[in-house]
Amino acid sequence: MTAAPALPTVLVTLGSAVLAAGVAAILGGAGFLAARDGREPDVLIVDDGWLDDPSPLDGAAVVSLGSRAWAEVLPDLCPHGWACLPADATPAELIAAVHGAAAGLVTLPPAWLAPADEEPLPSGEVTLTPRERDVLALLAEGLSNKRAARDLGVSESTVKFHVQALYSKLGVQSRAGAVARGIALGLVTV
C-alpha cells in the first residue's frame, strides 16, 4: 500500500486579516499545510493588493482572489500553475484552484473564459431536456460516449445525438466547450 501524495504547502497573503483567516481555515480543513520557516510555498494565495507590487516567482504557483485583471498579469509572472477566482468563490472552488495551480494547471471561472466584452448567455435562454442534462453531467465527469450510453442504458448513437443537440443549444463545438458553457450557465457543476 502506497502513501497518499503530500498536499502542497500554501502561504496566504491577503490584505484582509479576516479573509486571510477564513481562507487559511478552509485550506487547513482540507488538509493543506501552511508554509513555515521562511520556506517558499508550493502555492501562494494573493489578492488584488499584490498587483500593486508583483514580482516574478521562482517556484510557487499562485491563486488570486479578486479581479479579472489577474488573468492578464499572471502568465508573465508565474511560469507555473496559477488560478484566478472571484472574491466570492466557494470553498470547493478555492480547494480545486489550489490543487490545479499546484499541478501546473491554469484555472479560471467559466464566466471569465468569454471575452471581456462578450457576456455569457443567461441560463434562461438555454433550455435542456432532462436527458440532455443527464448527458451534460456525464460529459462533465469526463465519460466517453460509450460509457455514458452504458450508464444511461441507451445506445451510443443516442448519446451522440444528445451531445450534438447540446453543442447546438450551447453554441459550442467541443465537449470541453459544452462543459465550460454548462458550468457558466449553472446547468452543471463539477
UniProtKB/TrEMBL annotation:
Keyword GTP-binding listed: no
What InterPro entries does the record point to? Sig_transdc_resp-reg_C-effctor, Tscrpt_reg_LuxR_C, WH-like_DNA-bd_sf
Example GO biological process term?
regulation of DNA-templated transcription
GO MF annotation list = DNA binding
The answer to whether the entry has keyword DNA-binding is: yes
Note the superkingdom of the native organism: Bacteria
Q: Which UniProt keywords apply?
A: DNA-binding, Transcription, Transcription regulation
Q: Which residues form the HTH luxR-type domain?
A: 121-186
SUPFAM superfamilies, alphabetized: C-terminal effector domain of the bipartite response regulators
CDD domains, alphabetized = LuxR_C_like (cd06170)
Record protein name field: DNA-binding NarL/FixJ family response regulator
Task: Name its species.
Answer: Deinococcus soli (ex Cha et al. 2016)
